[in-house]
ATP-binding protein (Streptomyces cinereoruber), 150 residues
Amino acid sequence: MVDGADRRAGREAALSVSGVFQGSLDIAAARDLARRFLADVQAVHGLPVRESTTDIVQLVVSELMTNADKYAPGASLLALDAASGAIEVSVWDSNPTPPAILPPDPARIGQHGLEIVIRLARGFTVHRTPLGKRITATIALTDDPMVSGV
């Protein structure tokens, strides 16, 4: 469901969608939710969305949901908010421990997911919550971080 109003205090109206997912099989469903949401943002609401943005958002959703599935028991909440030329991808999970953000190391095999997310995002935050944590990556709708070097 796409909700046309973001009711959080101090925020302008945003287009929003959210879903609860559990297990590795739901990661594909979370990516699909992101793809459909961005298609609606563009087709129904007329906001410009680069084709590469959809790919980037799906990658970010996949990485964040995979980490939540791997490190936090139970379901995770995915929220997507589009406003001010960007989309915020937020994942809530039950583990209060912040993720280990490792420095780039081309010799390391694996564990590059957050490194990639941070590189592609305009902003990246981790907030502890009473029931775990929320990780948010902000992705520009029209700027291509691979071209602009964001």
Remarks:
- The longest helix spans residues 51-71.
- Residues 18 and 79 are 4 Å apart (CA to CA).
- The first strand starts at residue 15 and ends at 21.
- The chain has four helices and five strands.
